[in-house]
Each structure stands twice: as structure tokens, then as C-alpha cells.
Design a protein that fits this description.
The complex is a heterotrimer of chains A (354), B (375) and C (137). Chain A is built from twelve helices and eight strands. In chain A, helix 3 links the parallel strand 2 and strand 3. In chain A, helix 4 runs parallel beside helix 5. The chains are: A alpha/beta (354), B alpha/beta (375), C mainly beta (137).
């Protein structure tokens, strides 16, 4: 299956070390970097050495996966013939407790993305990394970058300090909607709560697979708290979630809503309908078996061909070779996933870049 | 006339399509025993303790309501389940026989008491309550009604105590499963629980795991949800955590005879979980060396799912895909009587489900799983 | 179609209900502020005895955090899964065009008419002076 002309909605530049951020940090934070030895802030969700973090043929002995723009250009942009790729930079500073450190470093990360990635290849676009520890500061960062239309989304992690539907986070959505930026919720972890209802899992594998539960919780929160009533233009993208968990959640939530909707009377439409209108999912990883019939059935269950967005999740190891999509999908559906749905989801993609 | 007594007076037994075989209902919740019902089975020390200190739960706000108050009276009951004879829903055997067992053509009903003491923070009290609940089930329910089968309640956070409980009650054939909540203090595959698996396997008793209203950890990884509807949706998650932990910790290699039943979590999420486990284990199996075969193979051998609350797709036929992906042999029917989200057997399974799958889900799978003899 | 006397006017007070069973079919008859409505006592979802459910108001909202209550006690909440039905129309709240409970016409008739017939024989005592609630099944 050719991906020529596809829009990749999830690639991962990785900040090699804090030294790469120094040009974009204030004098104070440059001193703190030395005093407090803040040399690395890799996200614990993607330790560089773990197989998930880098497909073997996308690794180099010379650098950690995702740290070099030329490799992304050759292995993703050129190799697949992508029209655009959206950079989602997962950085540990979205998890720290100090909101001021978070704000300073998020600003630096966004500047680094601009200079080292967006400026180097005009096929690249990016999400704004925001200090969600303080939603007002997050909104300020969105405002600061709003005029650079290469930023197409606001990035949040899947596990936060409270469910994302809560009013605490609404300043972020107000700013995002003002600038027609979808909210991208990506696999991540602020580490405030155990990953599971029974405490800390033993293994990386166990932790990572349980992320579908976090996506389900965020989706339930966004809908239940009335985010899509308060912000009717808001779109939310669930990035790297696994996809096939969604129909079961839609069915359960919809059944519950019919009976207990008076608890949340501002939700006047069935959850499945809200999801089809407002929520999108990136395609990799795609939790399916070898049977190529499963994805078309899942699309039927979701009830819309507009929901899935093409992604490679480069350089994470989610598929082999060029098999981003399973074989046997109709060419109409392939085109929607690769081009139409991403264009419809990210208004800034259609902006002319100066 | 109060609404509840109106509702009871007007209730009809379900009109069931003719079935040749009776149903096995794998999830019936007897009303929590009144203190006077449990007292005969509790030492004086515990009777006094309960009167003064009560049963304390993790993350509890008040003694009066659960953290997410239900959207139906009686802590979430069907409004027509209050017995005309008086008492709480599912407190009266005669009415339970009439409304559920006879009314729904139930040949066997598996009890799942929800207040056994397995989640209380005072573990010693928890053990005493579990034993008392086990005795109470025999005396009030299963010795009087042979269609009802008991749950062997155990204080799982103290594995040695749980094993003693299993040794004590497993020989009584009324007990057909070991009851443990899905939210445990650590992921359930951890070594601290292994003695329980050994005893369960030795006595060939499945472990039925039901979501509790309280737990030691937050109900989601992103914080406490606001609404009951969110909590109800999130009840689908703890069974997934259990399955993942048991597989990755190598429990199912070590105890190949172990059988786990996930109760009241629904089941439509199960195929996606199996696929996800296989996919990521494929690349990172060296982290979990005790796992000797693809996770989905353990799924097919060790796990069953009660059907309630059955997921209701916008197009009912979509559920047939799910059932095909999981395998009809994995599903065991349940009503969750007397809760509000009760599934009525005459109207629950998709109408186009093949007859042999219907028979397996309604009866055959549970008969084998719980080793019930045909009526 | 057959017509059946449910009650004498005044017997079912405002906000109250009475049940009528004819040939195995049970109907609940409700008095909403002097108007009468009859609904089949079977929820279209899973067959619960719908008319035994709680009478509730219609809950509306202008946005997150806002709750308003209109049309007191005109909605019927299914005693099982809580689906709401408009007693006046039989329509469900959650999917009014596709999910509804069957309704039956209800009229008030004077006792004098019953002497003439044709009405199904009832054991209901009738006087010429009184008025009666009649359901058309």
C-alpha cells in the first residue's frame, strides 16, 4: 500500500539533551541546568533503549531514536513519500511538578522544534507542547505561537493530574479553539496516579498496554463534563491509543447514557454521535490480529470513515516494513485515512506557510 | 402507596421465549446481610467492633453513600425488586425465587456477595467477615434453595488467611467459586497472591472477580472521575488490569489449571485487549520471560466473561463480530439481579446469535465451568 | 379495538396511576393534572414493567453545571435501566423518533353512555351520574 501524499499525524522528534534547549532558555534556567544537573528529561514512557521506542531499522548507534531530523526525513518523509508529518515531541517536562520550570522548558522545546525541525523541512508541522500543570500558562504558550501556522495542534499527555474534561483545563481549550487548533492527547504519563486501579504494574509492557484505559477515561471525561457543548468547534485527536478499544467503550458509554443522562443533562446527544463529530484517532499502533477483515469491521462499529488518521508513529516500533495500513482496505477508505481526514481535522494544514 | 411498593405490586415476571433448557445466572447479588443475620457467625469481639467502628473502606468519604452515588434508589437497584414481603432487594428468598429463578427460567444462580469484607482496610476484620458471609450464604440461601450456589469469599490481601478460608470451605459443594474483587492492593499477578492460585487450582475452583465500589488506588490513571456515569464506564478497566497482570507475571504458566471469571465488566473490550497484548509482547517478550506463548492463547484457555452489562451497539448485529472474536465459549450469562442495569435473559442476547452459541452462553459454558450437574 | 373502563373520574388523583390488564396485556393509566394518558406496561428496551417506574420531571440544561427541571412528574423513568419516557407521547428521551412505548387513547365518558353499549363487559360498577376514564386498546 502506497503512502505517497499521505499526511502522517504522529512522528516523534526527541530532544537529545537539555543542552539542545539552552539557546531557548533564560539565563536563570541555564544556571539551573548546571546546578541541578537537568541534563535529560526523557519521558519515562519511551526510554530510548526499550524496543518500542525505536524500530531496529530506524535506530543508529550514533544517536537515540528520533533525535536527528535527517533520519526522520530519509526514513519517514522521503521513504513513505509523505506530504506532511506532524511532530509530537514527548518531553518529560510536561510531567514535572514545578509549573514555572514546565512553562520555561515547554517554551524552549517549542522553539527547538521550530528551529531544528520545522525550519529544516517544509513538510514538517508540529504540536505545541504546553505546561498543563498551569492551564493559564499553557494558554499563554498557545497564544505566543498561534501566528506560526506550522503549529497545528496542542499536545497533552494521556495521564494527567485530573481527568481532562474538568474545568481546571478549560483555559487550554479556550485558547486552542480560538486558534482552530485541535487538542492531541498522546500516550504519556504525569505520574500522579498509579497506572492501574490495583497499583503500579511490574513491567513496562504492562504499563504501556494499560494506556487504552487512560484514553477511555479521558474520552469519558471530555464528553461527560460537556467539553463539546462548551466548545462545539473543538476536535480532539487520540494519538497512539491502539484504536480497536473504541467501539466497546462507545457501546458501554452509550448504553449508560441512555439510563443516567440526567446526571449530566448538558450532554444531549448520544456519546457515539459526539465521538464521530469531535474525536479522531491516529492509526498506529493498530491493535488487530493478522485477519485483514478486522479493521473494516471496526470502522463499521465506529460508524464513520472520518475518524481514523494516518500515522507511522515514527520512530516507535509499531509495524513492519511499509505496512502502516492492513491490506485489503478500499481505496476510498485509504484516501480518507491518509489525506481527507487529516486535512479536515487540522485546519492549519491548509494554511499557506510564509 | 410508595413508589417502591407500587413497583413491586405491578411487577410482572418476564415473558420468556420458550427455551428447552434453563439458564445459569452467574451474577446474583444477595442483599447485604443485616447485622442480626451475620451476628451468629461472628465472634463477640467483632460484633462489638462492627457496632462501634463499622467496616472501613479505602478512599471512603462517608459511611452513608458510596463515593459515586448511584442513579437509582437502594444503592442502584431495579425499582421493582423490593419484595412485597418487605426488606431490601434480594433479601427475601421467596421473592427471589418468584421474580428471578422461576420468572427468568434460571436453573442455577451463582451468588456474588458484594460486602464480604474482602476490601475492608482492617484485614483481620475482613477475614472474620468473609467467614461469616460464607456461613450466612449456606444458612440463608444455598441450603434452602439448591438452585443457588455460593461464593467462597476470601480476604485476598492476606494470602495465608485466604488459603485457610479456601481449605475450610472448599469441600462444601455449595461453594462453586472463590470470590475476589478486581481492584486489589497490588496487581493480581504479583507473587503475594500466588498461594491463593495454588489453592484455587488444587481445589479446581474458578476465581470470580467482580468490580468493587472501593479500591486502594484511584479508579483511573488520570485521576478521580467526577460522575457516576464515568465510574460505570471505568468498571470495564479493572478486569483488563487483572488479565494483563496474570498473563505477564507468568501466573498462567505456573498454574495451568487456573480459571478466572471476570464479572460485571462487560466483554466487548476483550478482543482488542488480546490483540494489543499479542502485538506488544511480540517485540518485548524478553521483559516478561515467564510468558511462554502469545497472550491471546492464555485468553482462550483461562478467562471467562459474564455477559452483563452486555454492550449494546447501535446496530445489534455488530455484537456478533465481538462474540465471534472472543469465542462464544468464553461467555457466561449473568443478570446482575437486582441491580438497575440488570440484563433480562429474554431480551439480552442478539436475536441472530446461532442457537448453539446461545445455548452455550446461557447454560453450557457455566455448567462446565462451575461443574454443575444437570437439573 | 376494544374500550375498557379503568376508573371513575376522581379515583386516580393527579400524579397517580392505575393499572389495567386485558388479555395478558397490562396498561398503566396516568393522571397528569387532570389529563389522562395510557401507556403499555412494557419497556421497549428489555421488557421491564415500565409503568411502575418513578414519575420524574424533565431535566434540561443550558450548559455544563446547569440543571433545570421542567414539566414536573411528566416523565416516566423505567424501573430497570432508567430510560425516560414522555407520558404524554410515549416517546423516549434518548431517541424519540426510534424508541417509544405504545400509547392508547383515553377518553372521559359519562356513565349514561355505558348503558347503551357496545362496550366490553366489565366487572366495574357503573352509575349513570358519574364519569369514567376509558382506554381504547
Amino acid at each position: 500500500m502506497s503512502a505517497v501524499g499521505a499526511i502522517d499525524c504522529d512522528v516523534h522528534p526527541v530532544v537529545p539533551s537539555t543542552d539542545d534547549l539552552l539557546p531557548y532558555l533564560s539565563e536563570y534556567w541555564r544556571e539551573m541546568r548546571i546546578l541541578r544537573e537537568l541534563d535529560r528529561m526523557d519521558s519515562a514512557t519511551y526510554p530510548a533503549s526499550v524496543p518500542l521506542s525505536g524500530r531496529p531499522d530506524w535506530r543508529s548507534e550514533l544517536c537515540a531514536p528520533g533525535t536527528v531530523v535527517e533520519m526522520l526525513r530519509v526514513q519517514a518523509l522521503d521513504h513513505f513519500g509523505l506530504r506532511y508529518a506532524i511532530c509530537n515531541c514527548i518531553h518529560g517536562v510536561q510531567s514535572v511538578y514545578d509549573e514555572n520550570m514546565a512553562a520555561a522548558f515547554c517554551r524552549a522545546v517549542n522553539e527547538w522544534i521550530r528551529k531544528e525541525w520545522l525550519d529544516r523541512d517544509n513538510r514538517l508541522r508540529a504540536s505545541i507542547v504546553v505546561p498543563l500543570q498551569n492551564p493559564d500558562l499553557a494558554a499563554e504558550e498557545i497564544e505566543r505561537l498561534a501566528d506560526d501556522k506550522r503549529f497545528v495542534q496542542v499536545l497533552l499527555p494521556s495521564r494527567c493530574e485530573m481527568p481532562l474534561g474538568k474545568k481546571f483545563y478549560w483555559p487550554i481549550y479556550t485558547a486552542a479553539v480560538r486558534h482552530k487548533l485541535p487538542i492531541g492527547i498522546h500516550t504519556g504519563n504525569m505520574g500522579r496516579f498509579s497506572p492501574t486501579q490495583s497499583g503500579q504494574p511490574s513491567y513496562f509492557l504492562e504499563d504501556y498496554v494499560s494506556q487504552t484505559q487512560s484514553f477511555a477515561a479521558q474520552l469519558a471525561s471530555l464528553i461527560s463534563e460537556g467539553i463539546f457543548v462548551k466548545f462545539p468547534e473543538l476536535r480532539v485527536v487520540l494519538i497512539e491509543s491502539g484504536v480497536t478499544w473504541l467501539p466497546a467503550m462507545m457501546w458501554r458509554f452509550g448504553k449508560d447514557w441512555r439510563g443516567v443522562r440526567v446526571e449530566i443533562p448538558w450532554v444531549k446527544e448520544a456519546p457515539a454521535s459526539i465521538i464521530r463529530d469531535h474525536v479522531r484517532l491516529t492509526i498506529q499502533p493498530l491493535d488487530v490480529p493478522a485477519d485483514p477483515d478486522v479493521l473494516p469491521r471496526i470502522v463499521e462499529h465506529i460508524g464513520s470513515e472520518d475518524v481514523l488518521l494516518f500515522s507511522t508513529d515514527y520512530p516507535h516500533w509499531q509495524f513492519e516494513g511499509d505496512d502502516v495500513l492492513p491490506a485489503g482496505l478500499s481505496s476510498d477508505l485509504v484516501r480518507k485515512i491518509q489525506v481527507d481526514n487529516p486535512l479536515a481535522t487540522y485546519p492549519n494544514l491548509m494554511e499557506t506557510i510564509q | 402507596m410508595s413508589v417502591r411498593s407500587e413497583a413491586a405490586a405491578g411487577s410482572q415476571t418476564s415473558v420468556l421465549e420458550p427455551t428447552k433448557l434453563g439458564i445459569v445466572d452467574c451474577d446474583i447479588h444477595p442483599a447485604p446481610p443485616m447485622p442480626s443475620e451475620l451476628a451468629p457467625f461472628l465472634a463477640e469481639r467483632w460484633r462489638k467492633h462492627l457496632a462501634v467502628y463499622g467496616v472501613r473502606q479505602a478512599n471512603q468519604h462517608t459511611s452513608a453513600v458510596v463515593p459515586y452515588p448511584r442513579m437509582a434508589p437502594g444503592n442502584g437497584m431495579r425499582m421493582d425488586s423490593w419484595p412485597p414481603q418487605g426488606g431490601a432487594p434480594a433479601s427475601n428468598l421467596d421473592f427471589l425465587r418468584e421474580q428471578l429463578l422461576d420468572g427468568c427460567h434460571i436453573d442455577f444462580g451463582i451468588l456474588q456477595p458484594l460486602t464480604s469484607g474482602s476490601t475492608t482496610t482492617n484485614q483481620e476484620l475482613g477475614a472474620a467477615l468473609c467467614a461469616a458471609t460464607n456461613e450466612w450464604q449456606l444458612e440463608k440461601w444455598t441450603r434452602k434453595e439448591p438452585r443457588l450456589k455460593a461464593a467462597l469469599c476470601v480476604p485476598q490481601e492476606d494470602a495465608a488467611s485466604a488459603v485457610s478460608m479456601i481449605e475450610r470451605y472448599s469441600r462444601i459443594s455449595d461453594f462453586v467459586h472463590i470470590a475476589i474483587p478486581t481492584r486489589t492492593m497490588e496487581p493480581f499477578g504479583r507473587q503475594r497472591y500466588w498461594a491463593i492460585f495454588e489453592a484455587a487450582e488444587h481445589h479446581n475452583l474458578p476465581i470470580c472477580m467482580h468490580a468493587p465500589a472501593y479500591g486502594y488506588h484511584c479508579d483511573t490513571a488520570t485521576g478521580w472521575v467526577s460522575y457516576y456515569i464515568e465510574e460505570h464506564v471505568a468498571f470495564a478497566n479493572p478486569p483488563q488490569t487483572v488479565i494483563t497482570s496474570l498473563i505477564f507475571e507468568g501466573v498462567l504458566e505456573r498454574f495451568p489449571g487456573l480459571k478466572i471469571v471476570l464479572v460485571e465488566g462487560g466483554f466487548a473490550w476483550a478482543p482488542a485487549l488480546a490483540w494489543r497484548l499479542d502485538k506488544h509482547w511480540n517485540h518485548m517478550r524478553d521483559e516478561v520471560p515467564y510468558v511462554k506463548r502469545p497472550p491471546s492463547e492464555y485468553f482462550r484457555k483461562h478467562f471467562w466473561f459474564t455477559t452483563q452489562p452486555i454492550e449494546e451497539p447501535e446496530q445489534p448485529s455488530h455484537l456478533l463480530d465481538t462474540i465471534r472474536w472472543i469465542g462464544a465459549e468464553r461467555l457466561v450469562f449473568s443478570t446482575d439481579y437486582p441491580h438497575w442495569d440488570f440484563d433480562d435473559p429474554s431480551r439480552t442476547l442478539p436475536v441472530s446469535l446461532p442457537a448453539q452459541d446461545r445455548a452455550a452462553i446461557f447454560r453450557g459454558n457455566a455448567m462446565d465451568l462451575f461443574k454443575l450437574s444437570g437439573a | 379495538m376494544s374500550r375498557h373502563i379503568v376508573a371513575r373520574v376522581g379515583e386516580i388523583g393527579p400524579g397517580q396511576r392505575k393499572f389495567l390488564t386485558v388479555a395478558g396485556r397490562t396498561v398503566g393509566v396516568f393522571n397528569l393534572n387532570g389529563e389522562y394518558f395510557a401507556l403499555l406496561n412494557r419497556c421497549p428496551h428489555q421488557g421491564a414493567p415500565l409503568c411502575t417506574g418513578m414519575l420524574v420531571s424533565l431535566v434540561e440544561s443550558s450548559g455544563p453545571g446547569d440543571y433545570s427541571v421542567v414539566r414536573p412528574a411528566e416523565m416516566l423513568r423505567c424501573p430497570w435501566h432508567g430510560w425516560e419516557f414522555d407520558i404524554r407521547t410515549g416517546q423516549s428521551w434518548c431517541d424519540p423518533s426510534k424508541i417509544r412505548v405504545k400509547t392508547y387513547p383515553v377518553t372521559i365518558e359519562s356513565g349514561a353512555q355505558f348503558v347503551k353499549g357496545p362496550y366490553v363487559a366489565e366487572t366495574y360498577p357503573v352509575t349513570v351520574e358519574d364519569e369514567y376514564v376509558v382506554v381504547d386498546l
